[in-house]
Amino acid sequence: VQLQASGGGLVQPGGSLRLSCAASGRISSAYDMAWYRQAPGKQRELVALITSGGSTNYADSVKGRFTISRDNAKNTVYLQMNSLKPEDTAVFYCNARLVRAINDYVYWGQGTQVTVSS
Q1: Can you point out the beta strands (E) in the chain?
Q2: CA end-to-end span of the chain, whole Å?
Q3: Distance between CA atoms of 50 and 43, rounded to whole angstroms?
Q4: Which of 78, 81, 85, 89 is nearest to 42 (CA)?
Q5: Which of these, 11, 13, 21, 111, could form a disulfide with 94 (CB 3.0-4.6 Å)?
């Protein structure tokens, strides 16, 4: 089981980036997928979630700027980030979760650095 995140980098304020997370192994379209981020000195926080059925949810701080999507044929989830701000600087982590009966399957990717700076 593996989640491979990519697409991070350095971008100026107001710019855009698209993160990708490719899932392999047991992770399938049945999983809810999410992006979290962790800024230096802060706790990891949920940025955006997309369920297996395609419903989405966003942190208030990114609503209207970020869009999460998934391509089940490619087993990949994306995070399109527009109008980036310096406070978006963080390590972004991909997450996959499936709850079945009493089992809670959770997997994390390795993280990709996003730096927003002029």
Answers
A1: 2-6, 9-11, 17-24, 32-38, 45-50, 56-58, 66-71, 76-81, 90-100, 103-108, 112-116
A2: 37
A3: 21
A4: 89
A5: 21
pLDDT in tens, 41-87: 999 999 999 999 999 999 999 999 999 999 999 999 999 999 999 99
What does the pLDDT average to over 88-101? 95
Collapsing DSSP states into helix, strand and coil, what is residue 62?
coil
Which helix (H) or strand (E) segment holds residue 75: the answer is none
Predicted pLDDT of residue 58 = 98
Structure tokens at 89: 């600087």
How does DSSP classify residue 86? G
Token digits of residue 103? 């089992």
Long-range contact pairs involving 15-18 (C-beta distance under 8 Å, separation at least 24): 15/84, 15/116, 16/80, 16/81, 16/82, 16/83, 16/84, 17/81, 17/84, 17/114, 18/78, 18/79, 18/80, 18/81
